[in-house]
Amino acid sequence: MLDPCINPKRFMDNISTFVPANVEGKPLDIEHTVTTDSSIAALIVYNRACKRLKNPAVWKKISGALSADFALFDSIREEDERALFAGEYISIDIPGPGSKAGNGFDWVKVEKMEENIIAGATESFGITLRAAKNPENPGEGVAHFFDGHATSTFIIQRTGQIIKANYYGRNEVPNTKEVTVIDKLRNGLVATGALAGLSNLQWEALLKGLLAK
Asked: 194 and which of 80, 116, 174, 199 could share a cystine (Cβ 3.0–4.6 Å)?
């Protein structure tokens, strides 16, 4: 719940300055909320959620067996759990055929990471990922089933005893133009599945996992 002294428009404007505008495609907004017994317990949940969000190596573990696998570009071993930073790449291994341009993976780049982005929240933290080229093979173009305008934004916020995890998908359009024929077919099929609801299941599971005990 927002402080009554906070202007709701300012609250929405604050989100809009961090979440990219949706120019094409249908936007996807998902939210998961947890209420704790005390502010101290809420702080524990919030800090744990932020730590998990900064660590793609655990995203599958906290999302469930049907989740995609996420890994930092320079990850040496499966249990590597270092925190990510702005500007680096994350590989995504989704169930089914992989991207040829991505050497079997879909790729995103960490576009920005910021704290205190939500007016009225006690504390907040956000990350925006953008569909990207394969850092090992950039000449093949964007290596993701969505094109390079697509972004995924995650925001964790705490207000008193309430913690929220939000996902904002923006400009989710199939990547079927400047790619090979094989990737055009593959990206079209995967993007269609994502837009039909499979993406919702992935991100709902991750948001719940971020806030779980």
From this structure: 199
